[in-house]
Amino acid sequence: MILFNRNIGLQSRIHTALLFMLVLLSAGCAGRYFHDVSLPQASERYDLSSLPYTEYWSGIIFNGSKIGFSHFSIKPSRDLPGHYEIRSEAALHLRILMADKKVSMVSYDLVREDLSLKEFQYRYDMDGSRLEIYGSCDQEGIRVSKESNNNVSADIIEVASRVYPGSVVYLYPAVHGMEIGSRYSYDVFDSESQSIDTVRQKILAYQQSDLFEGSAFKMETQYFGQKMTSWIDASGKPLFEMALGGILLSGLESETEAKRYLLESSMNKDESLLDFCLIRTARPIEQPEKVTCLEVIISGIGDDFAMPCDAGQVCVRQGSDVHCTVRVNPPDEEVGRGAGHDRPVDEYLMSTYTVPCQDERIASKAAEITKDASTDLEKVESLLAWLKGNIRKEPVDVFTALDVLEGEKAECQGHAYLYTAFARSAGIPTRIVSGIVYAADFKGFLYHSWAESLIEGSWISIDPTTSQLPSDATHIKLIEGESMSSLVPMAGMIGKLGIEIVELK
């Protein structure tokens, strides 16, 4: 999720396994609420035909308020003997920056008896923007098609072994038998990012708790760089989950109780999510838009994460912290440093699903906007002026630049999508970056997306949302890229970062 400053909005994404992308599960308070119990006499192992349930519902709570639900069902396929249909749905309704956000997902996975993926179809809906993803998996690879706002793409992903959908991460241990110390490792396909990652799971204990009925195996899962903890029964039904040190919870409920979020979330008017994502600083920045040089020490960055460095941003690790200096006008000796991250410049002119710069609707509008511009700098100025006058700054989530062009409104990432599509169409190499930006209204940093364009041989930071050219030095970038997979490393930082301002000019 990306929050951005200047009272503009929230960016959310939901993957096939919704909770896996929204939560960073941990066992922070396990010692207080859980206790070990004796194991059953024999380890149970289930096949899909003998599961003692066909569906379950879960409620999702953030900071004491109900914000959503999820529903899981499984049944034999009528058309293909030996195959099973797994259907999932999830919905979130929350409030951020005084705006209501509604996100939903409906998924269908056709799996074989060993849970490996055969066919899939997913539908995501965020504030009215819809994304359809569908395809199949066989020995030749995974065929994936994506469609949103008449923007269609197709791709084939090569696979080296069996691949599983995210919907089976609880069933897999149950099918293979659970015992304390058991370990599992298998590849999972994530549709939206069109990537595959190895899931690693370990059974840590067998426990009871006042937070759920019966006994459950405590399981730790590592998935797309995140570490998660859940309590599941022997049949693979998740009884309870904790996230973010106990701030985000999920537990089994009846259908009626799970859907009560529709009423409760509409009455939830606090800004708990904003408070959680906001990175407060002891030293305020009164006029962030005028900052030309910012020196900070960032804590909470994982040891295996490398901060991007180039002419405008120089970061050096100091023990567990990272020291970063961001300059609007870098010194001559820094110009050219890390300019392209060793990637061909042509890569930043390519059309992608998210940034379809070769689409006729994008190309014709970009040509119209820049027709009177004679230099790349003038083209950028024309694009920013058009965005400011024609795209409303509203907390509306989108999937592609076309969603923004058609809807004429977007949050920060949508503005970055459309600007990048326009700029690439106009022949200006441009990339999307995401990170944190200081928000004077909230006295801290919030998550944000902007762009960088190659102008006269130098990469210039540009904020299409605030029309800044160049962006002020409070823009600290963490990652580069417009795909969902590029955002995954940043998800693990939310709620963990701390910033000390050393110097600013």
Query: Describe the biggest sheet?
Result: 16 strands, mixed
User: Measured on Cα atoms, how large is the radius of gyration?
Assistant: 24 Å
Number of helices: 11
Spans with pLDDT under 50 lasting ≥5 residues? 1-31, 265-269
Beta-strand share of residues = 35-45%
Mean pLDDT over all positions: 81
In total, how many beta strands? 29
> Helical amount among residues, as a percent range?
10-25%
First-last Cα distance:
30 Å
The coarse overall form would be: globular
Alpha-beta content class: alpha+beta
Characteristic terms for this protein:
disordered N terminus, 505 residues, 16-stranded mixed beta sheet, 29 strands, globular
